[in-house]
Amino acid sequence: MAVTTYMGTRDQSLKASASEAIVRGICPDGGLYIPQGIPKMDRSPEELMQMDYRQLAYEVLKLYLDFTEEELKYCIDHAYDDKFDTKQIVPLVKKGDALYLELFHGRTLAFKDMALSILPYLMKTAAKKLGMREEIVILTATSGDTGKAALEGFANVDGIRIMVFFPEDGVSPVQKLQMTTQEGDNTCVVGIKGNFDDAQSAVKRIFTDKELETELAAKGYRFSSANSINIGRLVPQIVYYYWAYIQAVKMGEISWGEPLDFTVPTGNFGDILAGWYAAQMGLPAGHFVCASNDNKVLYDFFRTGTYDKNRAFHVTVSPSMDILISSNLERLLCHMGGQEKTKAEMAALQEKGVYQAEITEKRISGEYATEGETFAAIKEVFRKTGYVMDTHTAVAYAAYQKYRAESGSSTPMVIVSTASPYKFTKDVMTALDEKYAGEDAFVLMAELEKVSGVPVPEPIRGIQERPIRHKNVCEKENIAAFVRGWL
Ligand SMILES: *Cc1c(COP(=O)(O)O)cnc(C)c1O
To answer: Which part of the chain is the Threonine synthase N-terminal domain (predicted)?
Structure first.
């Protein structure tokens, strides 16, 4: 078994095995773990073309994790099973001039399920391998989708507790109910008076708070993270870029070796970074378009090399992308410029909210879509093809149109489709027809079913009737106190 070692993005002497990196979540100095060298795929195209999703997952994950074949297959088989509503796990569908990679067929209807279905198994296995005895406490900040996917993955897993912090007024009604109705005695859900960045910053501070760490260690607890800063989240996401490419070859869209482009609706930069890793492993992917909404900090970064979070924060119809601090970009910075520069850039971000970096990677570029363009994209694709996209996917579609117009490229494009339209019925239906604007989000589920011909997914059928089990609300300054209180 190949052993990839991990190192810190701010200090290369901070080394860890995969298991250690998964259990810790983040480096002791606040940096992130990255592989010390990105491994190469060791299977031939012919072999890869024969595999189902689980076999492919094994071939990718074995290169990154210090697990035995038996351990890894156990994790994979329990993650990618009939929790997904299609045998393919991730369908690639062609509509009009684009291919859509549907990453939303898991229990919570968003792409976060791709990684969070397997992370609990990876974490338990890693903890066991390390002989850990403490109870793991997962702290997660969410812009909406991670929270539910993490709760679903970790609920009732013994030896692990999970706390989720979400921005009270920054998620859709369906997203909110998905979280506040969560079952499982080991779960705790808290609404934050603040935005996602406030929640994420507070959680990151807790991870580096030595005093709190010592205090809780004495009680037998140890923190970890289910956010996309955990490499246990990132690595499983590499799999579906390979999968998409293989399906595109099978569909006759490309021959093996020809480029295939991807447009990725981006927030924390985890999804697109996994695609970039796949390309470094030897996947013949072409260009990556990093799509943003009005919170277009990444668009500006890829255009100018200046990352500046000092700007107004917009609450948009694509809330999972309402992010001004894209944590995983730190990994790309380190791959491009090394630890010393990354450390200085992150210090500047912390102190002044802005830094400059030299962008040596030309494979990624930025585009963005306004709210109006997002709505127009939903309507246009529906009119032309009958396909109903969610708001995040629509941002990617609009970005793809702009990229095409600017670059003149005609390379086949995969739109990474990150959520079911059923998570965002109100905005999706309003985009299709203004007459739905005042309607209740749940009434609109039935309408969407009629219009799209896609049945309401089982996990959210009747969600509005379920009992609310979590009513906690907390000021953003008091998160640490809240954590102490719950444990
Ligand atoms: C999380 C999420 C994104 C953003 O993904 P990142 O990995 O944070 O860039 C986009 N769309 C949806 C629906 C999401 O849940």
So the answer is: 6-80
